[in-house]
Design a protein that fits this description.
179 residues, two-stranded antiparallel ribbon, 34% strand
Length: 179
């Protein structure tokens, strides 16, 4: 598929980081153009007494030509599609030609793309951090359950003061938070 810039010039390796490709189509008309005309002569096969003849046409030089493709305004198009070999040469053939158009991004668009990419990377990093935190949650919960059990025993025995319990709860919260 051919690729053109916005000026209509064909390009081969567009930089997708600095621009975008869009599919476009154009109505075209294929016409058979004769390069060398066919030349023939008649050869008599049989002659009859009443003056009649049977003849056959012998081709001395075969017709040669090529397909020419133009848009609706009559401009020649460098068509890269396929025209079947058995297509009749007598009548023009209408077709739709697909190609791609390359448009270079503006500075503002490049800045916006860079910002979106940066935001996506930050979101991916945050998601990875969250997944890592969640993977460690079962271990932290096991430790928290042990700590809660110890707090319960200590409180039931009246072995600690309220200040000691508050410190233990703060430590337990830090443990659960992964700090």
């Amino acid at each position: 598929m051919k690729i053109f810039d916005t000026e209509g010039n064909e390009i081969t390796n567009p930089d997708i980081e600095k621009g975008e490709l869009a599919y476009e189509s154009l109505r075209v008309i294929h016409t058979w153009v004769i390069d060398v005309e066919e030349r023939t002569h008649e050869r008599v096969i049989a002659e009859y007494p009443n003056g009649g003849k049977d003849v056959e046409i012998v081709i001395d030089v075969e017709e040669r030509g090529h397909w020419e493709t133009r848009d609706e305004e009559g401009n020649v198009v460098d068509f890269d599609g396929i025209i079947p070999d058995d297509m009749p040469h007598e009548n023009p053939v209408e077709d739709v030609w697909g190609f791609q158009r390359y448009r270079v991004y503006t500075e503002e668009e490049l800045a916006e793309i860079a910002k979106r990419k940066e935001d996506a990377e930050a979101a991916a990093a945050k998601a990875a951090e969250r997944e890592e935190f969640l993977e460690g949650a079962p271990d932290r919960m096991d430790n928290a359950e042990i700590g809660m059990g110890e707090l319960g025993v200590m409180a039931a025995d009246n072995a600690v003061s309220i200040d000691d319990l508050m410190v233990a709860v703060a430590e337990l919260g830090a443990l659960v938070a992964g700090e």
